[in-house]
Amino acid sequence: MKIDDRFHPLRPARTGKSGPNSPAGSSFQALLDVQLRPASPGAPPAGVAGPAPVAGVAQLAATSRVQGLSLGTAAVDTLEAYGRALANPALGIASLEPLVERLEEQVAAVAEVGRALPAEDALRPLLDRVGAAAVVAAAKYRRGDFGD
Prior knowledge:
The protein has 148 residues and is an all-alpha fold.
């Protein structure tokens, strides 16, 4: 049986079309220009949201973003301090209680701010991930995973 070397499972099949109008012959720059070109003059490029229709909504979202950034940063800092405390064999498990309590408070605040952000805000999933990491750390401590 002869193996046909024109077909390889990891190599895409060629359609035979080539030239400037076919995808195989198009340059990356040309494809990028098409995607970034606004649909109409004055319109933002595809995928870029325009200004908020109501000034109050934009101000609220900006305030929530600033709050979310500061609370998220504080939660990450607390998680890092918790990790350092866990790695320190000189500290007892009971000494982690204040850090875990602070994490639980911060998770509640981060979740509240995250819910206030618009669903399409890029900060929202980041706050969700920070909150999830903090919840897991607190739950492991409360469950007794790090017992003396």
